[in-house]
Design goal:
Layout lengths: L1 H10 L2 H29 L8 H16 L1 H9 L4 H25 L3 H25 L6 H33 L4 H23 L18 H6 L1 H13 L2 H34 L4 H51 L4 H29 L5 H26 L7 H18 L5
Length: 422
């Protein structure tokens, strides 16, 4: 299989292996932590969850730390990325342990959200650093395309596996809901600490930026943030393929976010009322979507070679636009699980191509800023989708209007990217 051959080629690169290990551990911890949060916020028996409540939680957790995106980008272009991975994971491990204590103490929601926000805020630095560092551990454009197919997808699969571990732990933990959630969060904190130790296997200067681009003065760096952002945006305007890819990916992220809220509501109410285990169905949907991510890693190199990066993004979105109505409108678990696979494949296929476009067309001195902007667009798209879903969704989660809206947005993506064969 080509994907096995490509993986063998990349795994011969020692530095790539080490960076991949940090990614896998970091994103596995993310999956554990996020499932614990979802279970605590959405499925706790004492909480009457609504689409508006889910949207509010997403806004609290995502929008404030999106404001850190510009600062993260400037700092990533001035700090050693290995150090960001090391200290970022150490900090997340400590903060996640604090979240577990707050769950057991049953503190007011705003305190819990503040703790969760602190963990996810640091996450911006770590994920952007991983993406910006990838070109430093591969050789040439061909290996960069392979790495973008395999590395982020492997990270997503690790997050899915972490989510699966979290579900298993909740089943095996004591019956008291808060205890199970706290134990799950502690597992995530432990994996964050292991990821930090894995980062120590790489030399401090390996991942860049080059010494001439480093700026040791934090105060001066922060004061220059506005200027640095303006430079980054001007650089992006000169890189039109990257700008188009980021726009298209934001639209696809909007669709994914809207359907995520719908599935959460279906699992919590419609399917649970029909006698199904809503949390188990949510876990199955996450696993099936992860299978779609894996298939995307296998076929995206072929798709990019045949259609080009922009054409492949458009094809992924067009496929989702065709299949989502037929699979989603019955609002039944089996076709919705097939939809989860399709959307996992389409979203990850588009993301792999977008990562490749940004990394190949953006200069190394600007990658941190552009990838931080990429993260901000991701979060704003997701939160915006949650807000739209809150306005449209009925209490049980069944909404024809939301399905049709998502279909229309998916159908518009090829117009942005240019749906053509290379």
């Amino acid at each position: 299989m080509p994907v096995v051959r490509d993986l063998r080629v990349l795994l011969r690169l020692r530095d790539f292996r080490r960076l991949l290990a940090v990614r896998l551990l970091s994103q596995m911890a993310d999956g554990i932590y996020q499932v614990a949060l979802a279970a605590y916020v959405v499925f706790s028996p004492e909480k009457e969850t609504s689409a508006a409540a889910i949207a509010s939680a997403m806004a609290v957790l995502l929008l404030p730390y999106s404001l850190l995106g510009p600062f993260a980008g400037v700092l990533l272009d001035h700090w050693r990325r290995r150090q960001v991975l090391l200290y970022g994971n150490l900090l997340r491990g400590g903060l996640a342990a604090g979240t577990a204590v707050l769950i057991l103490a049953q503190v007011p929601d705003w305190i819990f959200y503040a703790s969760a926000l602190s963990v996810t805020a640091v996450n911006r630095f770590v994920l952007a650093g991983l993406s910006a560092a990838l070109p430093r551990v591969v050789r040439g454009d061909e290996q960069l395309v392979m790495a973008n197919s395999l590395s982020p997808t492997a990270g997503t699969l690790a997050a899915t596996a972490g989510g699966g571990l979290a579900f298993l732990l909740r089943l095996a933990a004591p019956s008291q809901e808060s205890t199970a959630d706290a134990l799950t969060v502690l597992l995530g904190a432990t994996v964050y600490l292991v990821a930090a130790l894995a980062a120590l296997r790489m030399p401090a200067g390996l991942l860049g930026p080059d010494p001439g681009q480093l700026h040791p003065g934090l105060r001066k760096v922060l004061l220059s943030t506005a200027h640095g952002l303006a430079e980054g945006l001007r650089h992006l305007r000169r890189r039109r393929p990257a700008a188009r890819a980021l726009t298209a990916m934001t639209m696809m992220r909007f669709c994914y976010g809207a359907l995520t809220v719908m599935v959460l509501m279906l699992c919590r109410y419609a399917w649970a009322d029909a006698g199904s285990d809503g949390l188990a169905l949510l876990g199955l949907a996450v696993a099936v979507s992860g299978a779609g991510f894996f298939v995307a890693a296998v076929i995206t190199p072929w798709g990019v070679g045949r259609f080009g990066t922009s054409g492949w993004i458009g094809l992924c979105a067009a496929s989702a636009a065709v299949l989502v109505p037929g699979l989603g409108l019955p609002f039944e678990p089996p076709p919705m699980l097939v939809a989860a696979f399709v959307l996992g494949l389409a979203t990850q296929g588009g993301k792999i191509a977008t990562d490749t476009v940004v990394q190949a067309t953006v200069d190394d001195g600007y990658r941190g800023r552009i990838f931080s902007l990429y993260d901000v667009l991701f979060n704003v798209g997701f939160v915006g989708a949650a807000g739209v879903a809150a306005l449209i969704l009925p209490p049980d989660g069944r909404s024809v209007a939301l399905i049709l809206t998502v279909t229309a947005v998916y159908a518009a993506v090829p117009l942005v990217t240019g749906f053509r064969r290379r």
